[in-house]
Amino acid sequence: MTTFGFTLHATDGAARSGAISTPRGQIRTPAFMPVGTAGTVKAMLPESVAATGADILLGNTYHLMLRPGAERVARLGGLHGFMHWDKPILTDSGGFQVMSLAGLRKMSEEGVRFKSHIDGSTHVLSPERSMEIQRLLGSDIVMCFDECPALPASEAEVARAMRLSMRWAERSKQAFGDRPGHALFGIMQGGVTRELREESARALTDIGFDGYALGGLAVGEGQEAMFGVLDYATGFLPEDRPRYLMGVGKPDDIVGAVARGVDMMDCVLPSRSGRTGQVFTRRGVVNIKNARHADDPRPLDEACQCPACRNYSRAYLHHVFRAQEIISSMLLTWHNLHYFQELMAEMRAAIAGGRFTDWQSGFHAARAEGDIEPL
Amino acid sequence: MTTFGFTLHATDGAARSGAISTPRGQIRTPAFMPVGTAGTVKAMLPESVAATGADILLGNTYHLMLRPGAERVARLGGLHGFMHWDKPILTDSGGFQVMSLAGLRKMSEEGVRFKSHIDGSTHVLSPERSMEIQRLLGSDIVMCFDECPALPASEAEVARAMRLSMRWAERSKQAFGDRPGHALFGIMQGGVTRELREESARALTDIGFDGYALGGLAVGEGQEAMFGVLDYATGFLPEDRPRYLMGVGKPDDIVGAVARGVDMMDCVLPSRSGRTGQVFTRRGVVNIKNARHADDPRPLDEACQCPACRNYSRAYLHHVFRAQEIISSMLLTWHNLHYFQELMAEMRAAIAGGRFTDWQSGFHAARAEGDIEPL
Questions:
Q1: HSE-up of A80 (CA within 13 Å, CB side)?
Q2: Does ipTM surpass 0.85 in this model?
Q3: What is the mean pLDDT of residues B11-22?
Q4: What residues pair up with B115 in beta bridges, in sequence order?
Q5: What is the CA radius of gyration of chain A?
Q6: Count of alpha carbons within 13 Å of A304, Cβ hemisphere only?
Q7: Do residues B262 and B244 touch, judged by C-beta distance below 8 A?
Q8: Residues ≥6 apart with Cβ < 8 Å to B348
Q9: pLDDT digits over A234-247, tens only?
Q10: Cα dist. B103→B94, B123, B164 in Å?
Q11: Is A313 an 8 Å CB contact of chain B?
């Protein structure tokens, strides 16, 4: 049985390429993880998600504990079999969603008591319960339970939440125990304050984790502030462990994060946008519902090899979006996930080839061109 | 270029098996045609529809003329390329939907003027315009424009509508002209009145068509009345042309129709039911939203080879249906279409083997068993 490990293959400036090994397969880094909130990446069959090039999915502890329930998933053999995905799965801790989605919450040192947004039933999340749920789900990469304060928040509030999260990280590590082949990641907090980020990183590395996430970013602070934190914060983390930036992001966020030493990211953006008709291409964002596409026989992106681009015109994609056909969500989600995975593959190759700066210039130049001219 | 043709391979009682040849490929009969209303079989990629065993799709003239528009589809190269389906397509004439879906209608000898149910715009359908639209779409099998009166209707009203439809059939034939490789089917009307059905069949065969449809059935008259008509009406039609029963139906309707000499059918049932959680199996209908499935690790049907049955438990299908995930519609539609195509394949084999009566007994016996016992 392969144990969990991380190998750096190349660096180019702060950017890194490598691979995480797990008993369920390798994760090429920098990696983008599609989000399979409730046991499905919306509008995709899992074999199609794999076909886009995804090596790992993210599952949401909060959603799965409420429905269908972690104990039920465990009785059914775990999340991998349940959702028919045999590659690695990373689960979040539930901490973020409990703050953003749940009803009536009561926070304490112990954890959070809250009401389900689905049926109003009462639940508890704590470091110990989060570890238990993630074990029941069969997650390969488990995240520490943390508190991510909602913005705007005072520095005192950010510091308080960070220090609580560090105590919870210690409890998470204890509760996780020794599980060969499974990894536990700590989550750095501290908002946009350098000293707090440094304190958080020190606390986490003192405990010791298989990987380190950057939490509390991509929560509304803006790209400049986020990059400002990444400029120093990745440097607080050990070089020989993967670094995961949670909830990022737009293509240019992703590129900027990789340039600053991030190895893993996740975001609902490609799948959610697929359902709302927002399409990502090398030349920026295309809104398929725009009337300019109604008679356009060209693909979204003629260089793209996804089924939406190989088999359909913009006119067809426009039609099925306007007619609210399910195939619209299916094809546009596939395209978007394919685009995000191609982006990661290009970056991995550029970093390995020592030409990441040039690649970034080309990336930004293509986007600056904007979409192809209407016919 | 293959011309349109029909070959009977075997008969067993009134049941027939054979093949329709077209330049776009062969259609094995008895055939079930999934419905791709607006240029998509809802929740399915076309390659997945083909994987279920479908040789032909049905497209709806009414929906496509309103959105995206027949002239637009023609400019884009026709319906096959537009929707990425290169096998045969049969289009209906628009006559049925204009009566069931359109707003404010004005019928005349000339045709029907009506308002779109989508945007209220005014349109006209006539035999000539219906033929033009079906030509613009690139349909392989074109249906005559007819009037199907809404039930309940007096015998006088049914007779009037049938005779109008026969005059329209003549005009449809004239307007269709000579299109090698494309077929035009006449549509028999006459409700449940034997004399009217016979008069209609005579009128159609006097004109001469490539195939003959049975219209005005499966519109609320009930299975017994429908079978009563089929008992004699297929016999009014030439043996050497395919017989198409429009809008049928449930599995037992389909089996009874094949037993009475029908070669082709279409229905939205498998795809629509897939979206509402109704699943067809050899042992009858399963309602996946029922709580009994929440912890059931077994597939819908362990003998079924579709992706929903090979890769997922009832518990998963129950979960994603309850969570209103798109994958629920995708998997259940796939299963249902697979079931319907397997049903047709079994009937073709049984007819070819001269054991159709035995096969029917087995079909009804398995359904009488009902779903597997809860765990």
A1: 14
A2: yes
A3: 98
A4: B103, B122
A5: 20
A6: 30
A7: yes
A8: B17, B28, B29, B30
A9: 999 999 999 999 99
A10: 14, 11, 21
A11: yes
> How far apart are alpha carbons B78 and B71 in whole angstroms?
9
How would you classify residue B187: left for phi > 0, otherwise alpha for psi between -120 and 50, otherwise beta? beta
Q: Across residues B51-66, what is the average pLDDT? A: 98
**B31/B244 Cα distance (integer angstroms):** 9
Q: Can you give the length of chain A in residues?
A: 375
For chain A, helix (H) and strand (E) counts, in that order, are 15, 16
In this model, does residue B114 exceed pLDDT 60? yes
Q: How many CA atoms lie within 13 A of A318 on its CB side?
A: 24
Q: Look-up: residue for tokens 């304060």?
A: A149
Q: Which residues of A touch B84 (CB under 8 A)?
A: 311-312, 316
Choose the closest CB to A320 out of B40, B76, B312. Answer: B40
Residue A68: asked if its preceding bond is cis (omega within 30°), the reply is yes
Average pLDDT over residues B169-178: 98
Could A83 and B316 be called an inter-chain contact, meaning their C-beta atoms sit closer than 8 Å?
Answer: yes
Residue of A nearest to B297 (CA): A76
Compute the residue count for chain B: 375
Backbone dihedral angles phi then psi of residue A175, each to the nearest 5 degrees? -70, -35
Minimum-distance CB partner of A67 among B82, B295, B323: B323
Which among B138, B215, B145 is positioned nearest to B182, based on CA atoms?
B138
pLDDT in tens, A295-333: 999 999 999 999 999 999 999 999 999 999 999 999 999
- Residue A281 to residues A89, A245, A341: CA-CA distances in angstroms? 27, 23, 12
Both tokens of A62, joined, read 């909060």
Quick one: pLDDT at residue B1?
Answer: 57
Determine contact, residues A264/A343, Cβ cutoff 8 Å. Answer: no
Catalytic residues of A: 92, 266
